[in-house]
Amino acid sequence: MRVLFFGSDAFAREPFSTVLESSHEVVGVVSRPDRPAGRGRTASPTPISEAASGMGIALWKPEALDDERFRGGVEALDWDAGVLVAYGALIPRWLLDLPPHGFINLHPSLLPRFRGAAPVQRAIMGGASITGVTTIRMTSRLDAGDILMHRELPIGDEDTAGTLAESLSHAGAGLLVETLDAVEGGRLEPVPQEEDKATEAPPISVAEGDIDWERPAEEIWRLVRALNPEPGAYTFFRDRRVKVWETHLTDVPPEDDPGTLMLLGKEGLLVNTGTACLQIDVVQPEGKQRMSAGEFTRGQRILIDERFSRCG
C-alpha cells in the first residue's frame, strides 16, 4: 500500500523505519513544525522530520492540518492509507476521509485502557504489570476507533517510561507492518472497543512530579520510574529543587516523619514515607548533573532530622 506517515516523537522512529523497509511505500511524511529546543533555544526538527529529511520523500510540517497549502498537497497525492504514530495533533474529519483504507493509529497501550497523551507513564504510575501496543482504525474521537490488532508486553520492576517506551516502539513497529499487510489483504475484522473498560491517560503536568512523602513508598517508587526521563520527579532540600531519578523499595519500617532522611554512608540515604523507607539511588540537585545519593549526602553534609519537603 501507498502510505502517508504522520509522526513526530522519538517513539515513532522505529515504526517509521520498519514501514520504510516493508513492502509498503511511504509516499509522504507529515510531522509537527520545528520547535525551539536546548539551552540555545534553536529551532530543531522532530525526530521523524529529521529521519525523513533527504530521503526524497515529500515532507510537510504544517502548523495546522487545515492549512490550504498542505491540504492541496495531500488531496493531490495518490495514497491508500494514513498511518499515525505519536504525531501530537488530532486529525480533522476531511483528512480521515481521504484515503480509501482510512487511517491506522499505533497506540502504546492495550486499548481501551490508557487512552490519551501519556499511556506509558500512566501505566507505570497506576501499577499495571502488563501493557502493550494496539493498532486501531482512527475516528474523530481520541483513541476510540475499532481495534485492528494488539500485542501484550510485561512491565518490569526496573522499567522507566523511557525503557518501556523503547520496548513498545519496537513491538509496535512489527505490529504496524502486520496490520498494514492484513488491511491490504482484507484479512482483518475490526473490533469495537469496550467503552465500559476505557480509562484515560491525560498529559503529565510538572506539578505531578512533586513527591508527597506521606504517600506509600511503592507509589513514590512508581512515580519516579514513570517520570523518567521526563519531566522527572522532584523534591526540595534546603529550599532548592532536587530531582529524584532512581529509587528502590525496602522493607525498613519508617522511624520518623515522612520526608525525614536517614544516612546510609556510601550507600546513600533512606527517606521515610507513609509506609516504609524508600532508598534513594540517583538524584540531581538544581543546577548540577545527576549523581549517586552517596555523592549527594557527602556534598551536602546532611544533619540529623533534615528532610525532603514539597513545594511551598
Could you walk me through the main structural features you see in this protein, from its secondary elements to its overall organization?
The chain has 312 residues and is of the alpha/beta class. The protein folds into 2 domains: 196 residues, Rossmann fold, CATH 3.40.50; 95 residues, Formyl transferase, C-terminal domain (Methionyl-tRNA Fmet Formyltransferase, Chain A, domain 2, Roll), CATH 3.10.25.10. 25% of the residues lie in helices and 26% in strands. The protein is built from 8 helices and 15 strands. The strands form 3 sheets. Strands 5-2-1-6-7-8-9 form a 7-stranded mixed β-sheet. Strands 10, 11, 12, 13, 14 and 15 form a 6-stranded antiparallel β-sheet that branches. Strands 3-4 form a two-stranded antiparallel sheet. A hairpin with a 5-residue loop joins β14 and β15. The chain is elongated and about 70 Å long. The relative contact order is 0.11. The mean pLDDT is 95.
